Amino acid sequence: MDLGFAGQTIVAQDFGFTVALTFSGGYEVRIETAFTLFEPGSAREITPGAESDARLVGLVVTSAAGDDRGGLRIDFAGEVRLVVLADDDFEAWTLAGPDGLKVVSGPGGELSVWSPPT
Fold it and tell me: Which terminus in the chain has less CB density within 10 A, N or C?
């Protein structure tokens, strides 16, 4: 499922007990489970609540999608990719967007989608 925020830029990040990424255009992704950040030549796991030196501000989204198993994949210019897998017991990630858009990867990977009114 295309999440509709390609072309947006990360304008703020917060690595706390959830990882919050704020994008231009009024989008925000909150990640509540460990995820993998792929950069040219490396891959590292980032766990919410643990310290991280990842610097994502300024990255531009080339594609963002939720899959039918509840995963999230965001590709950025410069061959950087963020991948979140669904969690069996908890919400893994949430996207909030303009006009009431909300997508939640619920426990077990079911995606719940609230679309903006048309």
Answer: C
